[in-house]
Amino acid sequence: MQRSRKRKQRQEESCNNNNNNSTSSDSVETFPSHPRPTHQECRSVRDALLDFHGFPQEFAKYRTGNRAPPPNPNSVVETETETDTETTVLDGLVSTLLSQNTTEVNASRAFVSLKSAFPNWEDVLAAESKCIESAIKCGGLATTKASCIKNLLTSLVKKKGKPCLEYLRDMTIDEVKQELCGFKGIGPKTVACVLMFHLHRDDFPVDTHVFRITKDLGWIPASSDREKAYLHLNRRIPNDLKFDLNCLFVTHGKLCDRCAKKINSKRSKTSCTQSCPLSTYIPITDSDDIT
C-alpha cells in the first residue's frame, strides 16, 4: 500500500509538471539552435499516428492513468491498466536486455525459457553460465547476454544483499539512470526502456525506429547520433506525450513500408505514400539518407 501511494504521488507530480521536460541531467541544450520538435508538432504527430493505428495493444499493459491517450475509434485497447503489477523491475530489466538485437518474439521466448529453467533470480545467480546461455539461446547473443545477467545479479547481491531492483521505484529519474548505468553492459537505451515501461516515468528511449523517424521528421539534426538524439528529444518532447509518441513511433516503424527498418537507407523520396500518416510532416530534401 505504501509503495502504491508513493507511485501515485509520483504520477500526480509528473502530471502537474508535463510542461517541464528537463531533468538535471538534460539541463544543457544538446542542439541549442535546433528548435524542433515544438509541442504542437509533437501533439499533431501523436494524433495523426493514433488516428491511423489506434493505441498499440502490445504496449497497453504499460499504461498508467496519466498516460491514457485520448479516445480513438480505431483503438482496440480494453479497460485501462494501471501497471504491469506481475512484473518486477528486475524482470523488466532482464527482459529488456534479452530484447537487444533480436525480435520481440525471440526475446519473449528467451525470457520465458529463462524463467522456466530458473524460477527465481537466486537460481540464475547460482547456475553455470553455460546453463544460462542454453536457456536464452533462442534470443541470440546468448553468451554476451548471459554474462551481463550474471554480472548484474552478482553486483546486486554485493550492493543490496539480494537480487532485487524494487528500490529503484523510490528514486528520481536521474538517480535511476546513475544507478543502472553503473552496472556493466547496461546502456542508456536499456535504462530509458526500464524507466518508461517498468517504472512508469516520463522518458523517451531512442531505438532504431524512433531514431530513423525523428530524423526524417527533422526533429533532430541530420548529423545527430542516437545518444544526442535521446538527450534532445527528452528535452523537447512534452512529458505527457512521450509515452504515446514512443510507442506509436515503434509500431509505425515496424508496419509502414516507407518508415520500416528494412527499407534501404537510400530511399526514394516518393516512397512515402499517402497511406503513411507522416507523409505531410516529413520535409522533402535533397538528401533523404539515414545513417
Automatic annotation (TrEMBL):
Query: Which SUPFAM superfamilies does the entry link to?
Result: DNA-glycosylase
Q: Where is the composition biased (Low complexity)?
A: 14-27
SMART domains recorded: ENDO3c (SM00478)
Q: Start and end of every HhH-GPD domain?
A: 98-255
Segments for region (Disordered)? 1-41
What is one process in the GO biological process aspect for this record? Answer: base-excision repair
Q: Which GO terms describe its molecular function?
A: catalytic activity, acting on DNA; hydrolase activity
InterPro entries (UniProt xref): DNA_glycosylase (IPR011257), HhH-GPD_domain (IPR003265), HhH_base_excis_C (IPR023170)
Which PANTHER family does its entry note?
Answer: HYPOTHETICAL BASE EXCISION DNA REPAIR PROTEIN (EUROFUNG) (PTHR47203:SF1), PTHR47203
Return the protein name: HhH-GPD domain-containing protein
Q: What organism is recorded for this protein?
A: Stephania japonica
